[in-house]
TrEMBL record:
Protein's name according to its UniProt entry: GntR family transcriptional regulator
HTH gntR-type domain span: 20-87
Keywords: DNA-binding, Transcription, Transcription regulation
Species of provenance: Pseudomonas frederiksbergensis
One family name in Pfam for this protein: GntR
Top-level taxon of origin: Bacteria
Coiled coil location: none
Molecular function in Gene Ontology: DNA binding; DNA-binding transcription factor activity
UniProt cross-references to SUPFAM superfamilies, sorted A to Z: GntR ligand-binding domain-like, Winged helix' DNA-binding domain
Length: 236
């Protein structure tokens, strides 16, 4: 019988990790592996396996897993422990409704505090998105563009919740963008949003953001419905 490959084998640890950095190194390493698909959805992450891999005790592993759970990248499942969370599924509409509320508020609070350097950074991400064809990189750049506009919101807890939603979308885009048939994405929405933000027009900025996210709801809902359609046909 062929043994299934262990996703943890894709993770390379370079030398001993200093004790004071263990939690953050483990968290960032696992986060990257989850986001880029090396550790796929449904994978159970055992604390002892991770402790052995990183050459540390179970305590920093436990703390790192808690952080990843708080970022909605892991779920704690009975008898399995920490399991890599699924990508956006049939609740895409509800997920985006919540994102619209959170991101709109983050944008409102951030706009008055944004500086020229923030605008330039956001514009640079749009330029990169215009020419990027790697779907993994598109997901990352999309998240970074939005966070550049929200980053000055003074409520840190709000920003963490916003980034959780963007992380979830990034994972979904990485694995589904090509299948959704969108090809090279137009950045007109992003450019219009950035112009309104630069003008400090909060109400227009929020309106454009809501329009942009609602377009995402429509595309993802349509895609999920199309992938579910064959199953419905075969069940008749």
């Amino acid at each position: 019988m062929t043994q299934k490959p262990n996703p943890l084998n894709s993770i390379k640890v370079n030398g001993p990790i200093p004790a004071h950095l263990a939690r953050s190194v483990i968290e960032e390493t696992l986060r990257s592996a989850i986001l880029d698909g090396r550790i796929p959805c449904g994978t159970a992450l055992r604390q002892q396996d991770l402790a052995d891999l990183f050459g540390v005790s179970r305590m920093p592993v436990r703390e790192a897993l808690r952080q990843l759970e708080a970022q909605a990248l892991l779920n704690v499942v009975a008898h399995k422990g920490a399991v890599v969370a699924a990508l956006v599924q049939g609740d895409a509409t509800e997920t985006y409704e919540l994102r619209i509320l959170l991101e709109s508020e983050a944008l409102r609070r951030s706009i008055p505090l944004l500086e020229t350097a923030d605008f330039e950074l956001a514009a640079r991400y749009i330029d990169e998105l215009e020419t990027e064809h790697n779907y993994t990189e598109i997901g990352r750049l999309n998240r970074l563009f939005h966070m550049a506009l929200y980053s000055k919101a003074p409520n840190r807890r709000l920003l963490r919740l916003v980034e959780d939603g963007l992380n979830e979308e990034e994972r979904f885009l990485r694995f589904n963008l090509e299948a959704m048939g969108l090809g090279k994405l137009s950045q007109e929405d992003h450019r219009n949003l950035l112009r309104a933000v630069e003008d400090r027009n909060i109400e227009l900025s929020v309106e454009l953001l809501e329009h942009h996210l609602n377009r995402g709801v429509e595309v993802i809902t349509r895609y999920l419905a199309s992938t579910a359609a064959p199953d419905k046909k075969t069940s008749r």
